[in-house]
Ferredoxin subunits of nitrite reductase and ring-hydroxylating dioxygenase (Pyrobaculum oguniense), 117 residues
Amino acid sequence: MFVKVARSAEVPEGGKPVVKIVGITPVALARVNGRVVVFEAFCPHSKWNLGASGMCFVGADGDVKVLCKGHGGLWSLSTGEGAVQGKPSNKLRVYAAVEVDGYIYVDLPVVASPTVL
């Protein structure tokens, strides 16, 4: 389900992620070459805040990537695949995003409400 997460102006060009909390889900948004990318806000390797320690860029292969400066982790923002210091790491969750009328909408999974007994 697409959810309004931020104003487009809140995510400037440059690759530095901005973290937003949507319900209970922290997500990081970045703009690289005019494209907005959205992914989980914490490094899947050691839970570093990618808003504070991350940088997004276009790799030599043309894929947008995020680098976690904590331990040198690098993840693809198209597949979520990544590695830390050359060793495969857990996948980074990546979310679809669209910009409409000055807002960024992110496709987040619907979490069922807990059942009260």
Notes: The CA atoms of residues 4 and 97 lie 10 Å apart. The first helix runs from residue 50 to 53. The chain has a mean pLDDT of 91. The domain at 2-107 is CATH 2.102.10.10 (Rieske Iron-sulfur Protein).
